[in-house]
Amino acid sequence: MIFETHAHYDDRAFDADRDALLSSMPENGIGCIVNVCADVESLDTTIALAKAYPYIYAAVGIHPEYAHRITPDLLSEVASLTKYEKTVAVGEIGLDYYWNKEEDHKQKQRETLRAQLSIAGETGLPFIIHSRDAAEDTLTIMKDTIKELPAGGIMHCYSYSLEHAREYLNMGIYLGIGGVVTYKNAQKLKDVVAYAPLSQLVLETDCPYLTPVPYRGKRNSSLNLPFIAQEIAAIKGIPAEEVIRQTEENARNIFKKIRA
Ligand SMILES: [Zn+2]
User: Fold this and answer.
1) pLDDT tens digit string along 171-214?
2) Strands of 153-155's sheet, edge to edge?
3) What ranges do the domains of the chain cover?
4) Main-chain dihedrals φ then ψ at residue 166, nearest 5 degrees
5) Topology, domain 2-254
6) Neighbours of ion ligand 1 (CB under 5 A)
7) How far is CA 214 from the centre of its chain?
8) Checking phi first, is residue 155 left (phi over 0); if not, alpha (psi -120 to 50) or beta?
9) Cα 165 to ligand 1 centre (Å)
């Protein structure tokens, strides 16, 4: 079965057909889905999805774009939601300097990331990191904190250099590979996938975004994961079935709260 490590099914893009789509996942080979909080409201909607579908699990956290909305109460809420039996990770958390380049917002993002990594460390849950236009600061914080994060985690939608990939892999961190790997102009990511051991890659869509070829531009869903597995298989010169099997095993190693 295919393990989807990063989806946003509480996104408005799924309002029209969410239940029909999610109900069709098992018959299409998608056996496990981690729905990841994308904003503050998503804390509730992600937990609701995990409660509604046996094969959906929750990652709870505050996305860096909402760092300005962080309060001690909100951090306590994240911490308390980690206790829910189907919460399997803290995420997505991280740094995103793409939209807001003001230094005080960046500072707030770094504080928020460190605070949520502490929650991951204290609860023994893995992290799911979102990082955009913040390669150096992200690597610095991860190197600084990885010893207090025994459950490890995932660099979601990995988009940085091979040099940084090597550093993350050496720390035991997994790389989340999504639709971007199928894009013609994604040579840097293809090189990372060629270099990284299959034992440290996981499949993800980040749906409704980042739809792989041949459906690029349309709404994404976990049903497109086979295209990503096929691309990784082609890069590594191995069968797609091996990619699917090993990435499921990797995901189960990370999300230990999910029973086989
Ligand atoms: Zn995401």
Assistant:
1) 999 999 999 999 999 999 999 999 999 999 999 999 999 999 99
2) 2-7, 30-36, 56-60, 87-96, 127-132, 153-155, 174-177, 201-203
3) 2-254
4) -60, -40
5) TIM Barrel (3.20.20)
6) 206
7) 22
8) beta
9) 19
